[in-house]
Amino acid sequence: MGETSNVSRQGDIETWTYMYNKTDIGARAFIPFANMAGESPIGLKINSLTITFNKSGIVEDVSSSANGNN
Length: 70
What we know:
Helices cover about 0% and strands about 55% of the residues. It is mainly beta and about 70 residues long. It is rod-shaped, with a radius of gyration of 18 Å.
């Protein structure tokens, strides 16, 4: 997974968060008035993965989310 975006601790509980962000700018973004129809030429993708460990270092919970328009 690479480096974590954030590591937090609350008492004996440790949480690791990984984030992935991707922005795609389409060619239409550079054409004047091409976006008048309301459709964005810019695609945004945001994914996150959160892993929670108990005091023994054992995974207690894993959650993920994906958002974006691309």
